[in-house]
Amino acid sequence: MFLIAGPCAIESRDIVMHTAETLRQVCAELDIRLIFKSSYDKANRTSMSERGIGMEQGLAILSDVKQTFGLPILTDVHESWQCAPVAEVADVLQIPAFLSRQTDLLQAAGRTGRIVNVKKGQFMAPWDMQGAVDKIHAVGNEQIWLTERGSSFGYGRLVVDMTSLVEMRRFGCPVVFDATHSVQQPSSQSGVTGGNRAMVPHLMRAALAVGVDGIFLEVHPDPDHAISDAANQVKLSDIKDILVQAKQYDLLGTR
Description:
two-stranded antiparallel ribbon; 8-stranded parallel barrel; single chain
């Protein structure tokens, strides 16, 4: 099992560096491979709320994380022109779920030669991800991860179909389970996404028992005051206990 983790959005250098240092220490102790994640821009927002620190400053902070702690970096891209400059810092380019069918974006990310992590759209069946895989393969990139992050169930609710984790494995790509976005309650708080972080460990354990290659967790020192995904990010102080559980259940899963 590898772990993708970090604050949802880059709010400040201090928060990012503190979170990265803590995550590195915990993962080193538990022998878990860590990829640090945070986003310089949250472009897929319901309302005109805070989006993040911006690409130039955000990439500079992520570069500091990479150089200071020796961690690989994952961050989102939203437009095709962002892929090349982001790939100068990030080891993994992430395609947000709402953009998972955007051909030009998928292929621009693929052309960088970096790993491309495609989050399955909330509106997509797992077998529909074949199209995203084919589009990236078409530009000569075989390094693709596929991430399950829940499916829309009416208004303001997501559910997780654990068979999706098995279905996507047939594409020959590592499969990741995003436990924090899967507990979102989209637009449930007057245009702001809600969630229930208490359910994160339960869904994570289920996914690990089914068998996944990686777990995605958004982690923040003070999530209730985060600018994005405040209701579903995991508290940094709880991360060790959650990852101890993850290690135990990872042994049960099949790949």
